[in-house]
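Friendly challenge for the regulars: who can give me the C-alpha cells for this chain first? No prize, just bragging rights.
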Amino acid sequence: MHLFIEKGIRGCVAMISHRYAKANNAYLSTYDSTLPSSYIIYLDANNLYGWAMSQHLLTHDFSWTDEDVNFMDVPDDLDISYIFEVDLEYPDELHDLHNCYPLAPEKIEVSV
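First reply, four minutes later:
Bragging rights claimed.
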C-alpha cells in the first residue's frame, strides 16, 4: 500500500502555456485602433499550500476495499477518505482544446 500511495504523489503543476502574448489595450500608448482590442490578465491563486494543509489528512487505519465507489458521490466532509487509481478514457477531440493544460498530470522523468 505504501508504494501505491507513493506512486500517486504529484508536485505542483507549474507551467507557461503561452510563451508570448501581445495586448492591444486602448489604455496604452501602443494601442492600434485598426485592430481588435485585447487584454492580458495575470491571475494567481494564493495560499494553495495553506489550503491543502488545512484539509483532512490521512494518517492511519488504511485499508483496501472491494466496494464500488463513485467518487462524485463522496461528500467533501466525510470522515473517511479514498485514494483512487483510475484508467482514463480521453476523447481525441479534446486533445487540442486541452493542449495547454494538463488535466491529468503524471509523474514521469524526462530525459534529454
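The chain has two helices and no strands. The two ends are 32 Å apart (CA to CA). Your move, everyone else.
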